[in-house]
Design goal:
The structure holds 2 protein chains of 2 kinds.
Chain A: E1 5-7, E2 10-13, E3 19-24, E4 31-37, E5 43-50, E6 53-56, E7 65-68, E8 75-79, E9 88-95, E10 105-106, E11 110-114
Parallel strand pairs in A: 2-11
Antiparallel strand pairs in A: 1-3, 3-8, 4-5, 4-9, 5-6, 7-8, 9-10, 9-11
Chain B: E1 4-5, E2 11-14, E3 19-25, E4 30-38, E5 45-50, E6 54-58, E7 61-66, E8 71-76, E9 85-93, E10 98-101, E11 105-110
Parallel strand pairs in B: 2-11
Antiparallel strand pairs in B: 1-3, 3-8, 4-5, 4-9, 6-7, 7-8, 9-10, 9-11
Classes of the chains: A mainly beta, B mainly beta.
Chain lengths: 115, 111
């Protein structure tokens, strides 16, 4: 039973390019969360998605960032026109269902470097 | 005010001692509480979760929850150098499993 899979593990983009980060949740998990971690800082919530729905995007920057979790395929976090400040580790987590007590499991993260 | 607050540390303890990590949260409606451990350059891994007031023990780890004080802690007994990591407190709300994370406390266990 594979865990949460994120790819790529490392991504280098030039300023102005687009970055696409993928997350495949654990089997049977229908809830996906994206977090960003800047160097030496904690995890910051970005967005919470269920299949085909964005439940909470209160942590997403208003511009350039978008996320989706289609009916088929992985969840995608898309960053358009990347800037140096976007350099961070982006972690995806998944959980099986709503309700108290369903913990989230994390993927290995994608480390984005903008040059 | 941050949703979840942790002392960033570093917290240094000698090998074999008890390490005490603390976390406070702002929303009284929070219902689930988690401790994750994150080694440098790695992803967070779940250590313990607790939902009810009181203590919950698992091996060398004890989680303590006081909802009245909006406080949750993690005790690590017989600390080992391999416990050296950043410990993240996470708080879950309502039924949507939206987790709020603290910025983590860095623990150093000295041999």
């Amino acid at each position: 039973n594979a865990g949460v899979m994120q790819n790529p593990r490392h991504l280098v983009r030039r300023r102005g390019q687009e970055a696409r980060l993928r997350c495949s949740p654990m089997k049977g998990h229908s809830h996906v969360y994206w977090y960003r971690q800047l160097p030496e800082e904690g995890l910051k919530f970005m967005v919470y998605l269920q299949k085909e729905n964005i439940i909470d995007e209160s942590g997403m920057p208003k511009e350039r960032f978008s996320a989706e979790f289609p009916k088929e395929g992985p969840s995608i976090l898309r960053i358009q026109q990347v800037v140096r400040g976007d350099s961070a580790a982006y972690f995806c987590a998944s959980s099986p269902a709503e309700g108290i007590g369903t913990e989230a499991f994390f993927g290995q993260g994608t480390r984005l470097t903008v040059v | 005010q941050k949703e979840v607050e942790q002392n960033s540390g570093p917290l240094s303890v000698p090998e074999g001692a008890i390490a005490s990590l603390n976390c406070t949260y702002s929303d009284r409606g929070s219902q689930s509480f988690f401790w994750y451990r994150q080694y440098s350059g790695k992803s967070p891994e779940l250590i313990m979760f607790i939902y009810s007031n009181g203590d919950k023990e698992d091996g060398r780890f004890t989680a303590q929850l006081n909802k009245a004080s909006q406080y949750v802690s993690l005790l690590i007994r017989d600390s080992q150098p391999s416990d050296s990591a950043t410990y993240l407190c996470a708080v879950g709300r309502n039924n949507f499993n939206k987790f709020y994370f603290g910025s983590g406390t860095k623990l150093n266990v000295k041999p």
